[in-house]
Amino acid sequence: MQLKTRIIDMSPTLKAINQVDPEAFDAFFADYKNAGSIPGKREGHYMRVQQWATANLKHLLYLAADDAVINYGKMRLQFLQKALAQDTSGDFCFRVLHPEVSGPPDMKLASAEYRNFIISNRAVLDLVNSAGEGIPVEHYSADDINILFSAQIQEPADKYGDRFLMDDLLALAENKRQTCQMEIDLMDAVLKAPPRESAELIRYVFADEWPE
């Protein structure tokens, strides 16, 4: 037990997993010890952490510090821009966004530059580590974040009309390129806000609900 405690203290990543998803912790702890300092195994461990982080993104964003959240938002914007650049139809990008509709993208069709961006980017790991530090984050009220969000996205809302923020995936699939561009414009809009506001807006974009 003392060994486990010492390792957790040395690893913000494991600390975050233990805090957010205790049921998954033992498997990640064993995986971490097994990986050791062996390059191939350590890379595999970090890839599994990234997959876990994606599944727990909303919770991590709420716990992480503003700078880590903004860094994730910037990565997300680049990620979507690069996904849309993979083909002119927007099909690849749409599959990245909504694999439940058309299936996941065929990564064999992706450029080496796009694949390297996904593998090498540490924004998700930094988000996990920040959440694991346990530093309290002060959040806006539900009323305040709603008002701020409406004002910040006014330009893309005017541009796209009723289709902007639509949740009908089948309707969105009718124009995949536009759907991806709307996601890009949304992230670009929230990143233009001052840092404190931008971080809260990014959290809000991904949240299912916002505490009162």
TrEMBL record:
Domain of life: Bacteria
Protein name (database record): Uncharacterized protein
